[in-house]
Amino acid sequence: MEPKRSELGQYLRARRSLVQPEDVGLVREPGRRVDGLRREEVARLAGISPEYYLRLERGRDHQPSDQVLSAIARALLLDHEATHYMRRLANASSRPLDDHRTAPVDDSIRALLDQWSHTPAFVMDRNQDIVLSNALASALGPGYMEPGANVVLQIFSEVSRQHAMDWEATARRVAAALRLHGDAEDPRLQEIVGTLTLHDPDFPAIWARHDVAVQRTGTSRHWIDPFGWVDFRWQNLAIPGSSHVLATFWADPGTPAAAAIVYLAAQVQQGTVPTKPVTGEALTG
Question: Using an 8 Å Cβ cutoff, are 212 and 179 in contact?
Fold first, then answer.
């Protein structure tokens, strides 16, 4: 079996198990033991033969057409990102292999971040490894919003579990973004997934859902001494021509977060920013 076809089959099986008969207008018969939809139900909803759909799940079919993929996407209730990801898996053998090297961040981005004296910001790669941050981001999250930290690993930390406003939803979103933007053959992605699979009790079930999603905006909670826990707004911006993402943090006027940013900016200017990680960090979504 071709590995790439196996990835598509795994994805179809995972998504099929999450769609309930009632979700697609089917009647749930008494004593039904199947998690989600049966293969033949997906095939019928998609207008294809059960034998053909079975071959897709088992990785034994040639590249399916866009029409077939669109029909399956409708049957499985996939959104735009999930449909795009499924097409990527189906066409994986036709794209060049990625050598997984991390391209350097453009100097203009470095200069931009340095100019943002009141906007904490960092740049992360497709595995959510932070590769660049400005001084205010380092002050907002010393040790965990600086180069070398990984956002996914931070979300699955015990501190995030304790202080996130909705930890499970946040964990699902960051895992979904990791799957969407990552490459299954990337050693760094394998390292992150392997570490969390071995050491985190919740990650295996979350990863097995095969969710994919774009992380665009949300709220992040941080411990700021002397303010305590403060909620900041964040926005992710794709950097054109790059797989890097620019994450920015901001606050509504008059909020504790706005006062905290002014306070941290003054610390940066005075050179009194903490020099070691605090123990109360909790990146949340």
Answer: yes
In the prediction, which pLDDT does 122 show? Answer: 97
Give the model's pLDDT for residue 102. 62
Give the sign of the dihedral formed by CA 52, CA 56, CA 61, CA 67: positive
3-state secondary structure of 231: strand
* pLDDT for the residue 96: 46
Confidence (pTM): 0.87
* Matching residue, tokens 């004296």: 117
* b/e map 193-221, b = 16+ CB within 10 Å: beebeeebeebeebbeebbbbebeebebb
Closest CA to 44 of 31, 32, 53: 53
Question: What pLDDT is recorded for position 95?
Answer: 52
- Token digits for 85? 């990801």
Q: In 10 A of CB 174, how many CB atoms? A: 23
Token pair of 69, please?
């993929």
